[in-house]
Design a protein that fits this description.
With 666 residues, the protein is α/β, with parallel strands linked by helices. It is built from 17 helices and 17 strands. Bound molecules: 4-O-methyl-beta-D-glucopyranuronic acid (GCW). 4-O-methyl-beta-D-glucopyranuronic acid binds next to loops.
């Protein structure tokens, strides 16, 4: 059943817009060098027709000849980079040139965006191509319909062990393509039970249906693999990557899978991680495991994306030598250069796990002879679960802008994962998706900015977080300046606000175990997960310097020395790298303990202020959205107060140091 209501269409709602002289070009549309029967071209055309009809009340006409004056030409042009496009308006003609069908789709969405933003197309002269070859969404959807770390309802891909294909599948593909996504992993990286069977006859037909829909939007389909599939699907009693029987089982399996599923890009693998099987079980290396699979998918143009989230999750909290932050690097750096050329290592942005603030993973740019891909999390597992507002694009930007010093120039994470640094072709960015089957797709209407923003940023890493926010608001709500500025301001401040009322200065965690929403300062302190704050009556923080776990040495210089020094360490990461007394003085002149108190009071005040700002939008935006977000803010305020009071009380009780301002601490 097709859902109604504006929110189901996210930023592609195509509400009526002022024309700005844009309508004139579309009376005649001519495709030159593109097959109008091609699925992607048909979708581009359908999107254009619908967008123009709804935004400007114009029905474009597909013409058989090039318009002499006044028209829109879509032209194939060699010399434009893969998936890129150019848009030029001159002499009454608007021309979209592209080297391939994806370029046409992206160009059309670009034009629709300009129309939605009420920007004139007159005189445009741009060329644009994606910075990252791979721009992917990873779904953590399970086949029973649940979503691991999903906060937007249930899966729209799976229910009760079955695969769903409906209007949502197509809409999802449209949204993804409209922001430049070109790869989607359908199922959770924790591959269990029925999901192991996705690579069997049981599901080929339905997976293929989705794959074909995706293909029409320039999106390749990927699946997460169960590394132990041979054992579970009746193959050999082993998953040893060097075992001949295992290799020939996979060989046959891939022959079958690639023959049965069209548009299959390859596989994502979480191995030897959090209880998932992997090559370590057989005394083999990560490279042994990844390369075995990669060699076998290579004949089909397939790739293996191998996650680096490998750490000891059964650590003894008493053991201060083991440092989870070290694990990714320690497990993968030794074999840099040994991974075959269709393997990509997928690296989470931080060495821990998607905290509101943590250092950038030293593997990014640490690896110098291996394809690498950045993984971020749009799903707000640790960042408010789509109840609390947390616009994550500033965080993603910070990671991309991080200078790794792996080379004298072109050394930022954005350079590395785009392939500019080392010249690789297989690289890019992936985000854990924040979507689900809620009518509005992302639980909180405002969380759609993270879905939109991830795609836009992965396509054009030089866009600013603010530009992206402003586009999203203009397309989703309206171009009214007050509305735009108000919502952009809310989005832009939200990450720092969230940080203020949760865990301080990069230490992370302090969350309720398992659910990861709400505070529990010691929730993980005496657990096996390697996520400690090490607070006692004198101070807190993890010493990752030379005197501690030595983690800082995983960075290139000068990063290593900068982090090693308490004076030079960026203050927002102070407790990530250093164990410090509560009386330590920050650059502001405040003591550490006073900073904790102040920032927590401030965080709650900021949420109160956000609510007032949101209330100023009443009547200016659709009431249903106003009300939904207003209700989420109420829950955020409750959450922020809980955090403030628990964190402040905890550190007051540990340290015995009173708040200088004598505010209420419990
Ligand atoms: O952050 C942890 C999550 C797990 C997740 C894991 C991972 C999919 O809590 O739910 O599992 O990361 O990234 O593999």
């Amino acid at each position: 059943m097709k859902e109604t209501g504006r929110w189901t269409q996210l930023w592609l709602a195509y509400d009526s817009r002022r024309d700005m002289g844009n309508g004139v070009y579309f009376a005649q549309v001519f495709f030159d060098g593109f097959d109008i029967m091609d699925h992607r071209i048909q979708n581009a055309w359908a999107e254009l027709a619908e967008g123009l009809e709804r935004m400007l009340g114009i029905s474009p006409v597909n013409s058989k000849e090039a318009p002499a004056d006044g028209g829109f030409i879509v032209r194939r042009q060699e010399g434009i980079k893969a998936e890129g496009y150019g848009i030029i308006q001159e002499d009454g003609i608007l021309t979209l040139s592209a080297a391939d069908e994806n370029g046409v789709l992206y160009g059309v969405f670009h034009i629709l965006r300009q129309i939605a933003l009420e920007e004139p197309l007159e005189g445009v002269h741009i060329t644009c191509h994606p910075d990252n070859p791979l721009r992917m969404l990873n779904h953590w959807d399970n086949m029973d319909g649940s979503i691991e770390r999903g906060y937007s309802g249930r899966s729209f891909f799976f229910e009760n062990g079955e695969i769903l294909v409906d209007e949502r599948t197509r809409d999802y593909a449209r949204f993804a393509a409209s922001v430049g996504i070109n790869g989607v992993v359908l199922n959770n990286v924790n591959v269990k039970d029925q999901a192991t069977w996705l690579i069997t006859d049981r599901y080929f037909d339905k997976v293929s249906e989705i794959a074909r829909i995706f293909e029409g939007y320039g999106i390749r389909l990927f699946l997460s693999l169960n590394y132990a599939a041979p054992l579970e699907l009746g193959g050999p009693d082993s998953a040893d990557p060097l075992d001949k029987a295992v290799i020939s089982w996979w060989k046959e399996k891939f022959t079958e899978v690639f023959a049965r599923i069209p548009n299959l890009g390859g596989f994502l693998v979480k191995a030897d991680s959090e209880g998932r099987p992997g090559p370590f079980t057989y005394g083999r290396t990560q490279a042994d495991g990844a390369n075995m699979l990669a060699d076998l998918v290579k004949p089909y143009g397939g790739i293996i994306i191998w996650r680096c989230f490998v750490y000891n999750c059964t650590q003894d909290w008493r053991d201060r030598k083991t440092d989870r932050a070290r694990a990714g690097y320690d497990n993968f750096i030794k074999m840099d250069g040994d991974y075959h050329d269709n393997v990509i290592l997928q690296i989470k942005n931080g060495p821990m796990d998607f905290q509101i603030r943590e250092a950038v993973s030293p593997l990014l740019g640490g690896l110098m002879r291996t394809n690498q891909m950045l993984e971020v999390q749009a799903a707000q597992e640790y960042t408010g679960q789509q109840i609390d507002l947390c616009y994550l694009i500033p965080l993603f930007k910070e990671v991309l802008d991080f200078k790794t010093y792996c080379k004298p120039e072109l050394d930022t994470v954005a350079d590395v994962v785009s392939g500019r640094t080392f010249g690789n072709k297989l690289c890019g960015m992936a985000a854990v998706s924040n979507t689900g089957n809620d009518a509005n797709w992302t639980g909180n209407d405002l969380a759609a900015a993270n879905f939109y923003g991830f795609g836009r940023l992965a396509f054009s890493t030089s866009l600013t977080a603010e530009e992206i926010a402003s586009e999203w608001v203009g397309m989703t709500y309206s171009n009214d300046e007050t509305v735009k500025q108000t919502i952009v301001r809310l989005l832009m401040g939200s990450r720092e606000t969230y940080e203020k009322y949760t865990s301080p200065l990069g230490i992370g965690w302090m969350v309720t175990p398992n659910t990861h929403y709400g505070p529990s300062v010691d929730g993980y302190e005496y657990s096996r997960w390697g996520t400690y704050h090490r607070a006692d009556h004198l101070g807190l923080g993890v010493d990752r310097t030379d005197t501690g776990t030595g983690y800082v040495r995983q960075y290139h210089e000068p990063n290593a020395s900068r982090y090693n020094s308490v004076e030079k360490c960026p203050e927002e990461l102070l407790l990530f790298f250093h164990h410090l007394p509560y009386t330590y003085r920050l650059k502001s002149g405040k003591t550490l303990i006073q900073h904790i108190y102040d920032s927590h009071f401030e965080g709650v005040r900021e949420v109160e202020e956000m609510i007032r700002v949101w209330e100023s939008l009443k009547g200016k935006i659709p009431e249903d959205s106003y009300a939904l977000v207003r209700e989420r803010f109420e829950r955020q305020l409750y959450n922020a107060r809980e955090w403030r009071d628990q964190v402040n009380s905890y550190f007051y009780r540990k340290s015995g140091i009173a708040d200088e301002k004598n505010r209420e601490i419990f």
